[in-house]
Amino acid sequence: MTELRRALPRMGAIDVWYFDSKTLSAPDVEKLSRTLGPEERASIDRFRDEALRRRHAVARVMVLSVLGEYLGAPTSAIAFDRSRYGKPFVIAPEAAPTIRFNVSHSDAMTIIAVANGLEVGIDIERIRRDIPVDTIAPSAFTPKELSALSRVSPDDRFPAFFACWTRKEALLKAQGTGLSRSPKEVEVGLGREGESLQTGGWILTALDVASDYAAAVALEGAEIAVDLVPWDPPSSPEA
Ligand SMILES: CC(C)(COP(=O)(O)OP(=O)(O)OC[C@H]1O[C@@H](n2cnc3c(N)ncnc32)[C@H](O)[C@@H]1OP(=O)(O)O)[C@@H](O)C(=O)NCCC(=O)NCCS
Predict the structure, then answer these.
(1) pTM of whole model > 0.70?
(2) How many whole angstroms separate alpha carbon 15 and alpha carbon 113?
């Protein structure tokens, strides 16, 4: 049995790892990418856009490195499968069958939630101010959420929109459907700083990981304690 290196969070707690890939130079990214297996590198190379390729390469290395911390396993020993709607889960090594994780990226930020035996979902979005909120919100928000959004001051409109959106997506990712289920079917509200919400066996809360980003995490159960952990890329990655 492989020995766990970093203890998994206790039940009702999660570790949220975060990283801004803008801090890496192009050679750093290339060096990190070389730690990935040929299949993974090929899947990253399919992105034509340089920024997307960079983001996916860093995210891939980060997922393997973070999970390796708990599993006490080399990255080459970690394998995944995906659920019906595409949610990845760990199938090897078998030492820590209770590990649950979920990933989100937006722009240069990647965040990963790790939980113990409880399903978890996470979402991050850069707060863009060039999106047609008036068109998108009615197709994704409930009447109550739309009404709350209409009462928000113009300055807070975009942050409030993304706060609600990330709460919805985190919940749908925790449940495993992602956006194959309409976000309009779940009511999560706009939320307030530090405020968590319990809904149908799930609890969700906003995360403050970086300015200009909205983020939220949802966990199975009625308790959520978040430990934010900055990720350090491996300084001398495995060849
Ligand atoms: C999950 C989903 C909401 C992600 O949207 P997004 O905002 O573009 O992306 P994020 O950065 O927040 O999250 C992406 C990560 O979520 C995870 N993910 C994918 N599907 C997921 C699901 N159904 N539930 C939870 N997490 C999922 C993956 O780790 C993915 O990262 P990867 O593409 O590098 O593997 C969206 O892709 C979706 O709704 N997918 C499911 C529906 C679908 O059509 N599935 C196809 C059948 S396989």
Answers:
(1) yes
(2) 6
